[in-house]
Amino acid sequence: MTKKEYTLSDRTCFLYQNEAAKHLLIQPIDEHDLEGLDQEVETIKELSDKSFSLVAFMIKDWNQELTPWGAPPVFGKTPFGDGAEKTLEFITSQLLPEVQEDIPHLILGGYSLAGLFALWAGYQTDKFEGIAAASPSVWYPQWIDYASGNKPLAKSVYLSLGDKEEKAKNPVMAQVGNAIRKQHELLTEQKINTILEWNAGNHFVDSDKRMAKGFAWLINNR
What we know:
By secondary structure, the protein is an alpha/beta fold. It has one domain (2-220): Rossmann fold (3-Layer(aba) Sandwich). The chain is built from eight helices and eight strands. It has helices spanning 31-35, 37-47, 62-65, 84-99, 113-124, 143-148, 176-189, 207-220, and strands spanning 2-8, 11-17, 23-29, 52-58, 105-111, 130-134, 156-162, 193-199. The chain has an eight-stranded mixed β-sheet, with helices on both faces. Helix 6 (143-148) links the parallel strand 6 and strand 7 (156-162). Helix 2 (37-47) runs parallel beside helix 8. The two termini are 22 Å apart. 40% of the residues are buried.
């Protein structure tokens, strides 16, 4: 597997390429995710014997580019924006034509707000066979209302959460446990191939391993 860093439309991208890949994993990341990206790829290899490539791209403004509609601040003073549509457009119209070539199976995944973005994208397009939402921000205002009234176009959805995340001091973020249980229940009722996996620890523990587990589950259970 070769690794390449390049710039596409002012976004820094990282491609881990396997020439024989049948699965392409796509992941929006921040600086913290980038630090663990090499280990994430190695862990996916350990958990699955199927060939894959992974392309990750940097998100400059986490609170603006990954959320589907605006919302007031939950922590700090920065509100959330509605940039998810533009980010999805970047993936489908620019990133995929650059890297997909003849790779038949596409999987989109992300951690935290990027996990929420991946979930949302799975409702917008059928391009992605699988969605890996690791510790996704399903506490996001109106998200569960949206999920209750819509059905994903993706065939499979992996969900995970840390077992201490719903004990957060922030009252909005503390809703994440009930929200992800509801998300999983909705997907199950809609006959989506899904799993909800609980990991030890809070939101900031082993994000690279949690992402790897999600991607590997989707590759192995396609």
